[in-house]
Amino acid sequence: IRITRPYSCPRATMDEASAAKEAAASANSAAPTIFDKIIAKEIPSTIVYEDEKVLAFRDVNPQAPVHILLIPKARDGLTQLSKAEFRHSEILGDLLYTAKLVAEKEGLKDGFRVVINDGLDGCQSVYHLHLHLLGGRQLKWPPG
Ligand code: TR5
């Protein structure tokens, strides 16, 4: 059965079994993702914030006027939120606080949304943990 999902959702582009297999393989793997290339600046991205631990850049397929991804520079096994361990608490806090700083910098004074997609049901497509910062328009609730 092919389920129609949004562009970035793995289930939109492959059948259910392949999507599940690919997600499991990606989630367990230490293999580099596209985000490693962005961190290494091997492929271009529009970076809006960078420090020694966190990188924030514009999503290539924006779902709102402001759509920024915040990622830990060191993945350290954190492929997705459901794989988080206690040692990741600090970087998780850093990412969330940085989202607030970037929102301020982007002028999102009327509010914004922070999203973490986890796994297949969460529509995760890149297995390097990331926060989506969305804003610049009235967002709807509940999300799809
Ligand atoms: O679906 P999840 O939550 O895993 O989010 C992954 C996000 O990465 C999606 O919103 C994609 O649009 C975004 N993405 C994917 C690529 C990419 C990117 N954002 C910026 N630059 C990108 N490059 C250069 N290549 C991608 N494949």
From TrEMBL:
Protein name: HIT domain-containing protein
Shown segment, full-protein numbering: 43 to 186 of 186
Organism in which the protein naturally occurs: Amborella trichopoda
Domain HIT residue range list: 34-144
Gene Ontology cellular component annotations, sorted alphabetically: cytoplasm
Active site: H130 (tele-amp-histidine intermediate)
A biological-process GO annotation: purine ribonucleotide metabolic process
Domain of life per record: Eukaryota
Chain ranges for the short sequence motif Histidine triad motif as given in the UniProt record: 128-132
